[in-house]
Amino acid sequence: MTVENTNSMMLKACLFDLDGVIVDTARYHFVAWREIAEELGFVFTEEDNEKLKGVSRIRSLEILLEIGGISLDDESKTLLAQKKNSLYLQYVLKMRPDEVLPGAREFLTDCRNNNLGIGLGSASKNATTILNLLQITHLFDAIIDGNKVTKAKPDPEVFLTGARELGVLPQNCVVFEDAKAGIEAAIAANMFSVGIGDPVILGKANFVTSGLKNLSVKTLIAKLERQSNRNAPA
Ligand code: BG6
Ligand code: MG
Q1: Which residues fall inside 5 Å of ion ligand 2, going by CB?
Q2: Is residue 64 within 8 Å of residue 33, measured between CB atoms?
Q3: At what angle do helices 25-40 and 57-68 cross, to 10 degrees?
Q4: Mutate to test the pocket of ligand 1, among 48, 55, 58, 128 (most ligand atoms within 8 A of CB)
Q5: Whole-prediction pTM
Q6: pLDDT at 7
Q7: Percentage of residues in the chain with pLDDT exceeding 90?
Q8: What's the topology of domain 26-92?
Q9: Residue among 31, 60, 85, 92 whose CB has most ligand 1 atoms within 8 A, to mutate
Q10: For the structural domain made of 13-24+98-231, what CATH number should be given?
Q11: pLDDT grade, residue 227 (50/70/90)?
Q12: Which residues neighbour 5 within 8 Å (Cβ) at sequence distance 6 or greater?
């Protein structure tokens, strides 16, 4: 069974980013990168951090170094990326199932009850560790993470791979993202998108909401219905 709205869109699957959508690990990434920047002798702000959201670990480091005006050889970069990951994992490994963001577990369950395919589309190589700690791995039909794809968002690879694994067409998918690069990836994949966070940053999404707690499959369909005349993929 699929869920059809009265305009053109037939919703068959939802693809979720992880960090900042399902769980607030975006905060832990920021704190770990800030510590690396401090060590390198410059200040790394929350505004700078927006540029790192949705971006792979090594690309994040390169952006961080550009912000600090620092150039390093590949070996030093690898070591710093490993150090950042160790700092990050110190926070992550303490996570408990109740750290799933408000409404996320309920929304995933609602998708399941409506027979929608559920995919994860994350740049993180720690995604399966996090899903296991949160005890929500079983809610996903396909898990596409930083170990499975090579091209970082805004490239659509992660979401197109997700649609393929779920056996649905891109135009029947909705992506949930907290990163500008992630919304751009969804658009490049010819998918609908829901921004989770600041409408100023995520303005290209079909609509923006502060979190999954504000949504049900029914309200999602209604909102997409309202938006589909304006922003529907070709
Ligand atoms: C994304 C985050 O989900 O994963 C980025 O938004 C992060 O900030 C990227 O850099 C890679 O994560 P990890 O866990 O592989 O370092
Ligand atoms: Mg994210």
Answers
A1: 17, 19-20, 178-179
A2: yes
A3: 40
A4: 55
A5: 0.91
A6: 46
A7: 88
A8: DNA polymerase; domain 1 (1.10.150)
A9: 60
A10: 3.40.50.1000
A11: confident
A12: 11, 221, 222, 224, 225, 228
Domain ranges of the chain: 13-24+98-231, 26-92
Note the pLDDT tens digit of each residue in 117-159.
Answer: 999 999 999 999 999 999 999 999 999 999 999 998 999 999 9
Average pLDDT, stretch 190-198?
A: 97
Which amino acid would we find at residue 232? A
DSSP 8-state symbol, 172: G
Tokens linked to 44 = 């790394």
Does 5 score more than 70 pLDDT? Answer: no
Per-residue pLDDT for 2 more than 60?
no
For residue 3, list its beta bridge partners.
11
Q: Is the per-residue pLDDT at 6 higher than 60?
A: no
Terminal-residue alpha carbon distance, the chain: 24
* Burial call 42-78: b when 16+ CB within 10 Å, e when fewer: eebeeebbbbbbbbbbebbbeebbebbeeeeeeeeee
90 CB-near residues (< 8 Å, 6+ apart): none
Rounded mean pLDDT of 70-81?
97
DSSP state of 208: E
Residue pointed to by tokens 């699929």: 2
**13-24+98-231 and 26-92: identical CATH topology:** no
Measure the CA–CA gap between 182 and 157, rounded to whole angstroms: 11
| H or E, element range at 195 | strand 192-196
145 classed as catalytic: no
